[in-house]
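Researcher: Following up on the earlier apo prediction. This time include the ligand. It's zinc ion, with the SMILES given after the sequence.
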Amino acid sequence: MIVLAPEGLYCPSGDFFVDPVRPVARALITHGHGDHARSGHGAVLATPETIGIMKVRYGADRIGTTQAVKPGETLRLGDVAVSFHPAGHVYGSAQVRMAFPPRAPGRAPVTVVVSGDYKREEDPTCRPFEVVPCDVFVTEATFGLPVFRHSRTEDEIAKLLASQRLFPERAHLVGAYVLGKAQRVMALLRRAGYDRPIYVHGAVVKLTNFYENEGIRLGDVRRVDPKERPKLGGEIVICPPSALQDLWARKFPDPVVGFASGWMRVRNRARQKGVELPLVISDHADWEALCTTVAETGCSKLLVTHGEADALVYWARSQGIEAEPLHILGYGDEDAEPEIAEDAA
Amino acid sequence: MNRFALLLDRLGYEPSRLNKLRLLVDYFRTVPDPERGLALAAMTDALVFTHAKPNVVRALAATRVDPHLFDLSYDYVGDLSECVALLWPAPPREPGIGHNRPPLTLSEVVMTLATAGKLELPRLIAEWLDLLDETGRWALLKLITGSLRIGVSARLAKTAVGELGGRTANEIEEVWHGLRPPYVELFAWVEGRGERPDAVDPAPFSPPMLAHPIEERDFAALDPAAFRAEWKWDGIRVQASRGLEADGSTVVRLFSRTGEDVSDSFPDLGEMLATLPAPRFSLDGELLIVREGLVQPFGVLQQRLNRRTVTLKLLADFPAHIRAYDLLRLGDKDLRALPYTERRERLAAFIDEAGNPALDLSPLVAFTNWDDLAAARRDPASAGGGPDAEAIEGLMLKRADSPYLPGRPKGPWWKWKREPFIVDAVMMYAQRGSGKRSSFYSDYTFGVWRSDAEGEGLVPVGKAYSGFTDAELVKLDRYVRNNTVNRFGPVREVVHGQDEGLVLEIAFEGLNPSTRHKSGVAMRFPRVARIRWDKPAREADRIETLEALLRVPA
Ligand SMILES: [Zn+2]
Ligand SMILES: [Zn+2]
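Model: Understood. Below is the ligand-bound prediction.
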């Protein structure tokens, strides 16, 4: 039904790929992150939101012909019935469900669900994850180890605001992946009652504007004027993780270096990146959420695309579920930046 | 316990010394006795209790977590305490249970451990882990396994205590010996509520003076006439301290550079120092093995250090010797404020008077300009090093007028190491690092080409775990993960062959013949000088290149 080709997950009877890592004729895209949504495909099928994001990132002329598929809508590709279902990962993110004709007349169709990246936590910037029952569940496992237990995001935002109160003269930089994480942090800050302007690095502007245009309210967001940096003591500034180590970051008054990522759970990872204020805010499922989801799909077979696959495969087998790691290379290389933190955007 | 855990957590992330100090001062100011004193003891390594062995913690984790999932997690996190702290399942919150229990304090932990029997440990630890949150669990495990490395030196902790009442760290150091946790009288004195505790260490350790590596560009600003040069001997830097107890008995201590008491490993030196005519002194020098007047290369000293028990045969086969650099204290006098040349005169007289064959003076290297010195560095044997040249690892430049300052002040002392040797080798295995690098594959075993009965292959010649930047480490770690062909416990075998593999340019200080290594050689201080992403593995160096080095005096 689905096979692993060099380009990525391939469905021969529907002749399409899901999140291929190389250009292909027809691609179904789960969400707009650079490692899943690449440019240069012949035809792209995705949610309208994801197509919007791809246009912002790559330009309409570099993503081939597009077909927007609304969540829940079913379309036929060959003999496969395909539909998209919310994944809760970032704005527009979806799981892909494929229903194959029954093996014998009178039997139920065989269903495969490819999760893409997902999380179960509530997120003000995207639709919540929906459990889609299936026979074969193809999951991610970015945080597929029992040590990953994400904190409550409210607590992490409170930690950021407490630090801001403690060091009112220092700028608080928060490294956050430019698509999804950055806007989620803004929305969470607003929800916590933070009403001062939120400053952003230039790289965050385009996608934030896109979110705003889509009707996701993020309040007063201002692009950092490089000349004004020394005056931003006490402000919260959101930037791409890679900017934290740049000269760019050093022009702020005695910056507190924060980082919003699931990796921040492990001290050495945080420290290695020179982070002083680790914020465990993740757009991926933690260990418990992964296990819960696998169980809730009721799948009899589990395939793990990327991440810490070994533990999840082991756990699934112990639950009597047939499980295999796929070790797909190319995921977790957001924008091919050699940064561990970007993996888990 | 919670305040202490939060302090440790924040300290661990805080890079600036000044902000660390602020956090510490704030802690000592707001936390009462005896809690703060025990925290001070924990940070200065002064707590005495039987540490829980890592395998106790592991076994405990196995009671709550699937062992295979534990192994995978541990392999990922790299640090046992943190791994268990993260994995430990939240305790079942039964209503009514635990409500009347006061929060766990550091004092309770320390007092309980001081008297607890080994067999009680697992039950106690499990109980405590159930009471704490993730940060608390982490701090507790760090503490009880004796692996509390939080980037705070004892010196910084003492500085913070001093700041409570305008005292310097040196003032705290002066009374430190003789005080015991929880240091109630120390805090009372610093806060102006009590007398100065008096305690004089008869054989104290003084933080040694260290040198900065000199760079080519530094010479232009330096006047050769203002400096003296000595050989940098390749042994162990030690401080020998001798004094009298209140009852008149003699105390001799031998300290490593970091203040660790190594007297027990060198009873021969202890005896030698005890028989010298001066009853009270502290001197700074290099510990070497000298056989029949010849200084042995470091490899020989290494052999003595490798032996666990000190036998008479060991003492006879590996006679220890001190080559003196400096005199810090003599009788009642602290000489550290005197200029180098004056201290050296007194040191020479001291050694003369001692007349002991196991103690001599590190000679000066004569020079008038930097070129002379560069020549001496290239060829120590012809510049006075003679047959001892093999044990010379470079030069020390000391300002003639320099006082003896603790730490590594920039300017008065410089070290000028010999040029390192360079070899291109292929990465063969990788292992996780320790400390802040424990979640990265940062220790690399590398090999060079050799032909033997089985044909052409790579033979491991050393292990390097430094020399690269953090950014390079991220790339190397990723390379290892993506190119693993085999796993042996914590070790990953990385792809290596004629047509694939990563070439590392390795710099090292010298080479010793070794029977313990398959290659027959052991490298000194190997580190990664460059990562040769571009170089094909087959073009890496061959063992013959290294064997040739063995024959020249390293
Ligand atoms: Zn993603
Ligand atoms: Zn991804």
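Model: The CA atoms of residues 39 and 63 of chain A lie 5 Å apart.
Researcher: Noted. I'll compare it with the apo version next.
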